[in-house]
Amino acid sequence: MTKSLVTGANGFVGSAVARCLLNAGHEVRCLVRLGSDRRNLDELPVEIAEGDLRSVQSLKAAVSGCDNLFHVAADYRLWVPNPETMYDINVKGTEALILAAAEAGMKRMIYTSSVATLGANSNGVPANEDTPSSLISMTGHYKRSKFMAEQIVRQITDEHKLPLVIVNPSTPIGPRDIKPTPTGRIVLDTLCGRMPAYVNTGLNVAHADDIAYGHLLAYEHGKPGERYILGGEDMTLLQILQTIDEISGKQIKRFNLPVKLILPAAWLMEKVATVTNVEPRATVDSLRMAKKKMFYSSDKAVRELGYRYRPAAEALEDAMAWFQDNGYCS
User: Fold this and answer.
1) Which residues form the domain of 61?
2) What is the CATH classification number for the domain harbouring 65?
3) Which of 16, 57, 87, 321 is positioned for an S-S bond with 212, CB 3.0–4.6 A?
């Protein structure tokens, strides 16, 4: 039986990947931080390895004895009080882990990047793996750190001829978003009646379990050195909110807010957050990103991996049900 190490396995997408691998017959070792929330791993037959992407020694111990690596872990926040931490985890930690996996002679490696590293078309046409992007075009520390990490991963893969495949998930939606993630918070806030307005932006919505299965397909069929978008359905933000309302049986009229009108409020929220250390509900970077419709094509993954994705409404419905069942709206 093949043994796979999954980083970030207690997180939203990571736990979905761990479940998918278990269902496919893999033994799974989960790299998790000491003291982290492990509810997503409850009752799963996995081995726990405590460690940190900022500790090379713990990474070498975690990869030892494993055949494959699924590096899903990342610091995914649109605002951070200390950006250096994000770069230490997403960039330096990723480099150290890939090098440790290479030294251990792993047979297969899947690196979870993000569509955040890809270019976006201003005319709304879905971007793909070849849409140009650059570090200077990345908005915010999260996107910059993921772009830098992917460049390093590609360089190491080429130099060492590693059996590594990159996947670029879009916007994951679904159950077990315990944090919740920034996109999960949109679903939760809408469900709980906290989204009276919207901006003219768009997202590519994919069920977290479909993205997880895409990781398995990349492991089975992906070409080393290639990257694959694991996405779903393109929707405007208004369409997302209206779909949630429809599932909830509600009819809510919302008003459109131009981004330029919200920027001062977001700036003020960030200033308050530096004192309270509580992540603001709106950030300057998230609003800057919202100026473009973040639409993406998964055609390459469909064609080369056999990837499939369900309608976005099903992802939204599953997320809503999970939030309700777990008391997030109380």
Assistant:
1) 3-176+206-232+295-310
2) 3.40.50.720
3) 16
Count of structural domains within the chain: 1
How far is the C-alpha of 118 from the C-alpha of 231, rounded, in Å? 13
pLDDT tens digits, one per residue of 273-330: 677 877 777 777 776 776 778 999 999 999 999 999 999 999 999 999 999 999 998 7
The single-letter DSSP state of residue 93 is I
> pLDDT tens-digit profile of 121-168?
878 789 999 999 999 999 899 999 999 999 999 999 999 999 999 999
Q: Which residue has the higher pLDDT, 285 or 180?
A: 180
Spacing of C-alpha 160 from chain mean position? 26
* Measured distance CA(330)–CA(318) in Å, rounded: 18
On whether residue 17 sits in a domain, the answer given is: yes
φ, ψ at 64 (rounded to 5°): -60, 125
- Residue 49's DSSP bridge partners are 31
Q: Is residue 156 a part of any domain in this protein? A: yes
Helix (H) or strand (E) holding 227: strand 227-230
Say if 63 falls within a structural domain. yes
